[in-house]
Amino acid sequence: MQSYWFGDVGDGNCTPSSGDVQAKADRVRSIHTSMDSFIPLSWEISVACGACRDRADYIAKLREVCFTAADRDIRQQYSGKDAELLQMVRTLDEMDTVINLLTERAVEWYQLRHPTFTRKYRKTPAHILVKNIREKSRGALSFVAGEIERLSATRTELAKAVSGRANDVMPNTSALIGGLVAARLMANAGGLEDLSRMPASAIQVLGARTALFAHLRTKSPSPKHGIIFQHRRVHNAPRDCRGKVARVLAGKLAIAARIDHYRGVADPVFLESAQARIDLTGTVRGKETGKTTGKETEP
Amino acid sequence: MIWIGDVLVSHGEGGVYSERMLGNARVWDPFRSKLAALYHKGTGVEITAETRVLYLGAANGTTVSHVADYADVVYAVEFAPRPMQDLLEVARRRRNIVPVMADATRPEQYAPLVESVDLIYQDVAQPDQAMIAIRNSVFLRDGGHLILMLKTRSVDVRKEPDIVFQETVDALISAGFVVQESLWLVPYHQDHAAIICTKPEV
């Protein structure tokens, strides 16, 4: 017997499937066709079956089923909790790029108007600089600087939202490495499911694509860390044990991502043992240099 | 195929992707569509009002819309949700397109939907493109055609395009296809080849 979208066919008999379009679309998904003995359907059978009047009717009814199925599948794919977080992270990263570019340009413009201006030997943070430019300039430049400030404010709000959403969508990963970095890892992997399927060694160098391929192609050393460097546990660790911390952290992150994807709730027992293990790696070397590296816990 | 001078066109409702119009004919640009490039190279398979097409890798439905202007029916298979949204919109206004959201590497997912076809057109960015064609050949009637647009860079970026091309042709031949013609799509598309096969009559 062979199952098609309009019904079951076999032994000279044919049973049209019942139900509305929605039911038919759901039925198509549940059919498991074995391709070894498969015979492509023909519309004449469906007419003989009483499911359709003629070819035009056959195509029209088939289209209805396909549209319903596609709408359902698209909706399902977009309803994943990580889908929106992915867009939020990418927007955030793009805003960072835009703000940096505009700030650089505004400073250059400002220098033209103030030939004695220099940033040497000054540690003015970028946002203060932009504020100064807005206050000390007139006209278009002042407007541009004001616009950069507003963009920065939006960016700050967005970063908070990303962090909050990440805590909700990937509680375990976020607890280990912070919501923002966790979200970036997820975005770089292409989604929570993709991240949960990655080996720890891939998570460790996620975001270090150039360095990784340079390493694979030439004799340059392998990258020790990618995005996870952004977390202070890694970048505060002394140089000679940074790779070790990154490796242990990535190992725990791989487990955390899997719990997040398949269970979706925080696992305090796992988190406690993982935190302790990562802290241990950071402090072994930390004692000698007088630095405590792994003691911080996530807010 | 319909030509106005040396411009390939198709007859149908315009404005799908702000394509250029010549009167009421839609210009089919060889630099945008690989299938149009194939016809501009002076070859390809004639699509008529009787042709049933299985289109693998339908994407946003731009090329699909032109194929649908010529064909009887087009089964358009696409996997990714974002291009699928566009494809659905195209299919809503062209009543001979059947949109199928499924993975072309797994024909069992859409086997209950697709009838036997005269032409399989495959344009997917996947590593094993020959395998996808072979798996889908159950839908192809005996004597039907397969047009495989080979994206050599999707198969393996490190391999020479020529080697990938040859390997794919060999795989198709050993699966029982008769290769009619194979050519590169320069100057319209770089690193893309077209392979035209027939499924022999038993």
Overall description:
The complex is a heterodimer of chains A (299) and B (202). Chain A folds into 3 domains: 2-78; 81-169, Helix Hairpins; 170-299, Serum Albumin, Chain A, Domain 1, CATH 1.10.246.90. With 299 residues, chain A is mainly α. Chain A contains 14 helices and 3 strands. By secondary structure, chain B is α/β, with parallel strands linked by helices. Chain B has one domain: Vaccinia Virus protein VP39 (Rossmann fold), CATH 3.40.50.150. Chain B contains 6 helices and 11 strands. Chain B has helices at residues 34-40, 62-70, 81-93, 129-136, 152-155, 161-174, and strands at residues 2-4, 7-11, 21-22, 25-27, 52-56, 73-78, 97-101, 117-122, 140-151, 178-184, 192-198. In chain B, the strands form 2 sheets. Chain B has a 7-stranded mixed β-sheet, sandwiched between helices. In chain B, β6 (73-78), α3 (81-93) and β7 (97-101) form a beta-alpha-beta unit. The relative contact order of chain B is 0.14. The interface between A and B is medium-sized, with 28 and 26 residues.
